Amino acid sequence: MNQKLSTGKKILIYIALTITCLFFLLPLFWILRTSLVTKTQAYQMPPDLTAKLTFQNYIHIFQKGDYARNFLNSAVVALLATGISVAFGSMASYWLTRKKGSSTKERLIILAIQMIPPIVLVVPFASIMKKLFLDDTWVALILAYLSFTLPYVIWMLFSFFDGIPKELDEAAQIDGCTKLQTYFRVVFPLVAPGLMATAVYSFLVGWNEFMFALVLTGNKTRTIPVAIAALETQAGIQIAELCAATIVAILPVILLSSFIKKYLIQGLTFGSIK
Amino acid sequence: MSSITLKNICKTYEDSGVKAVQDFNMEIEDKEFIIFVGPSGCGKSTTLRMIAGLEEISSGELYIDGELMNEVEPKDRDIAMVFQNYALYPHMTVFENMAFGLKLHKIPKAEIKEKVEKAAKVLDLQDYLDRKPKALSGGQRQRVAMGRAIVRNPKVFLMDEPLSNLDAKLRVQMRTEIAKLHNRLGTTMIYVTHDQTEAMTLGTRIVVMKDGIVQQIDTPHNLYAYPCNLFVAGFIGSPQMNFFTATCQAEGDKAKLILGDYEIELPEAKAKALIEGGYAGKEVTMGIRPEDLHATDTQVLATNPSCEMHAEVNVYELLGSEVFLYFNFCGANVIARTEPDTKAQVGDNVGFVMDVDKIHVFDKDTEVTITN
Question: Which of B69, B78, B100 should be substituted to probe chain A, the one whose Cβ sees the most A Cβ atoms within 10 Å?
Fold first, then answer.
């Protein structure tokens, strides 16, 4: 039932929403502002709000360091880890929801894998990758990320696949579909919103991950989070450049999220609107 | 031609050990309309799904047109199936839903369009071809599911309780549509239902199942008039047959059923069956259909009325063309379907006569029919 809100209530709601938005957005605005001033102005207290804005920090990070390369590394690693986990994870999840008999045991194993704290895996992973001559390669990082994105994708997609009646698969089979055709032509379009939501999360994990990247990467494959951390030098924190680098790192995520916002909301609310 | 042969078909679920279907044998001729009927869990849907290839056959052989189908994929069996919940593809329009199977079989686009439009016309769906399933009513969705099956022009149509999600009026309407469709297409159809009215009105032959075992395979008339056991007698017919425990008493070649204080003189053929079966002096189960019990205040239509009994009416139900009278007699709850001119009301002590030619007698232990 839609209740008409009184003006007083509406004002209160807007004030609450504005405060919440400011709470989350102010730090971002401050990072943006800092990225557009010089280092001296950035540290000035009280802040000089009339300072002239400049893109010098942005130009600097791309010219001085390997930021473009770090950006590429992050993009490749996050995209490939996401692509692989969504491709294989969705099929694994689909199979587990459609297999004959109970899949409770398998589901619990998938859940248990997610419970392993990533830090436990860092040292063994580094040692294994070194032995396999894979240290400082994209492959090492992608494999590391897959160890937690893959179970996450499988687990998340259970509810989406469970929500699709098995009769649809059976109807497709009778209509003439092979198992693969059933998956791609009937089931896949129906779980697309769920896949999108899961893929975005998976991408964010890869894009933001710091610990594995710090241990497994060298100069060649350094990713953005490690590169940003490296801006804290012996000469002090390059705060303006650091903020510029942060803004550049945030941009793809904002673009990606707004591009698939529709699917994301649909995916996140999938279970609740059944 | 599309005949189906089921030879000793069994289905056992390995994980639970449940025997869903046991030793199912049947020959289905071309153009037959076969109905699988029975209570929930009797194995009727499982049998249908085994024919479709959606369930593995544990043992036995399934032939379609003489070809062994046990290991053949559903897509290669040339069958179409209508599901209980329709199973329409929600992301496709009505046209795409109906065309999907044809596209997969690489039929030329022009031919697909022609076939879908023809089927849509038959099912009165022309105006809905661009709609998605969610924008359709239950009846329309059901018709799309039928259309998806029709366009394929399959060897066999399989229908798994296709009308159970519809309201009563639409169900009757669609039942007629399905009967017309079968007459027009002449395709072999297998139809699963637990609604015995659907079974009686649609089927050329009916398979009655219980606990995974086939009880009787026969025409609707024969099932109704000559049930092979107590279960079939009780399951087919609405309201169901009235049952009483009676004692058989024989004198020479004559036999009577003793029902409390009443004696029912049996016709010669029925008496002979009981005497020859060695039931003299034994307890048996007697069955009589509600329409073979007549209130004596009406114009009695029985061919051989006998044994006037009296009972107090508990419930009176007027259905327009007929009246159901409920009463308790010899410890059994009894229903009589009488003519609407009866004056009987709740609480009245009413006289009833039985049509003894229509009495069924069953073995009390094995529940097998002794005489119909």
Answer: B100
Closest in A167, A175, A189 to B101, CB measured: A175
pLDDT in tens, A139-160: 999 999 998 899 999 999 998 8
d(CA B278, CA A39): 112
Side by side, which strands form the sheet with B293-295? B293-295, B349-355, B305-318, B323-329, B332-338
Look-up: residue for tokens 């680098």?
A: A245
pTM of the model: 0.81
d(CA B337, CA B339): 7
Q: Do B148 and A189 touch (CB under 8 A)?
A: no
CB B161 within 8 A of CB B83: no
| Confidence tier at B45 by pLDDT (50, 70, 90) | very high
- Residues in chain B closer than 8 A to A170 (CB atoms): 52, 54, 74, 81, 83, 87
CB burial string B202-240: b at 16+ within 10 A, e below: bbebbbbbbebbbbbbbebeebbebbbbbbbbbbbbeee
Residues 6+ apart with CB under 8 A from A185: A172, A177
In what helix (H) or strand (E) does residue B24 lie, and over which residues does it extend? strand B19-28
Domain edges within chain A: 64-268
Rounded CA-CA distance B300/B119 in Å is 49
Cα B209 to the chain's mean position, in Å? Answer: 10
CB A98 within 8 A of CB A106: no
Tens-digit pLDDT profile for residues B101-131: 999 999 999 999 999 999 998 888 999 999 9
Residue A39 contacts by C-beta under 8 Å, 6 or more apart in sequence? A238, A239, A240, A241
> Are A186 and B73 an interchain contact pair (Cβ–Cβ within 8 Å)?
no
Distance CA(A94)–CA(A100), nearest Å, equals 12
**Residue A38 touches partner B, C-beta closer than 8 Å:** no
Task: Give the pLDDT score at A271.
Answer: 39
pLDDT tens for B207-216 read 999 999 999 9
Q: What are phi and psi of B153, to 5 degrees?
A: 50, 60
Q: At what angle do helices A104-114 and A138-162 cross, to 10 degrees?
A: 140
CATH of domain A64-268: 1.10.3720.10
pLDDT in tens, A6-62: 888 999 999 999 999 999 999 999 899 989 988 778 777 787 777 788 888 888 888
Four-residue CA torsion sign, A252, A258, A261, A262: negative
Q: Are B163 and B130 in contact (CB under 8 A)?
A: no
Per-residue pLDDT at B301 exceeds 70: no
Give the SS3 label for residue A185: helix
Nearest C-alpha in A relative to B84: A167
ipTM over cut 0.85: no
Residue B264: phi and psi, rounded to 5, are -115, 115
Q: Cβ-count burial of B309 within 10 angstroms (0-12 exposed, 13-18 middle, 19+ buried)?
A: buried
Q: Which domains does chain B have, with CATH numbers?
A: 4-235 (3.40.50.300), 242-371 (2.40.50.140)
Kindly state whether B79 is in contact with chain A, defined as any CB-CB distance less than 8 angstroms: yes
Residues B265/B254, Cβ–Cβ less than 8 Å: yes
Predicted pLDDT of residue A273:
32
